[in-house]
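Many introductory courses stop at the sequence. We go one step further.
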Amino acid sequence: MTPVSPPISSSARTGRRWRIPLILLTLFILAVIAVGAIFWWLNRPIKATVLAEPEKAVLEEKLARLEEPEGATPSEPGTPDYQPGEKLIVLTERELNGLLHDNTGMGDQLKLELAKDAVHARISADIPEDFPIMSGKKLKGKARFLVKDTSGNPALILEDLTIWGISLPNAWLGDLKGKNLLGELLGKSPSGGIAGIRNLVVEQDELRIELDD
């Protein structure tokens, strides 16, 4: 005789009926949380970088060394990474943003983030009330600059600019994408880089600028 399967209880059928909707609901909630997290991350407020007094002292020491003649004795032996007159300055991301805030007061509107051979600039600013469109709204944007051209020369090349997550066409930017903006501003070196800058290196959390003699 063929064995007869026991009947499926009503409680088991109910459990199966609810299982798929419950899984879909869970996935939907996780997707909403993920989208919300991404939206918050892209629109997170910019906090001005305010350097503490010891940090300011270190930064001022770095800048002062660029003006010291070669062979000069460091004011604090043992602390520097480079020698006076070497024409090399190394700045951390925090020092760079602190310098930006102290000199422009835009630390809560513009933040620089250092990556491998690139600089990202986050922008968060209020659109003036008398502006024709979107007046009173918060402008959110991000620009990505490359610091070397295809030949490896120092450069500051606008690779992309996004506003509210939308990449703007090059035609809207006056064909600025792909141009060595700092080279256009300061003049170009014989090799096609930036006049006065021998080398420019950007790593995670570090900017290294080597000036020409």
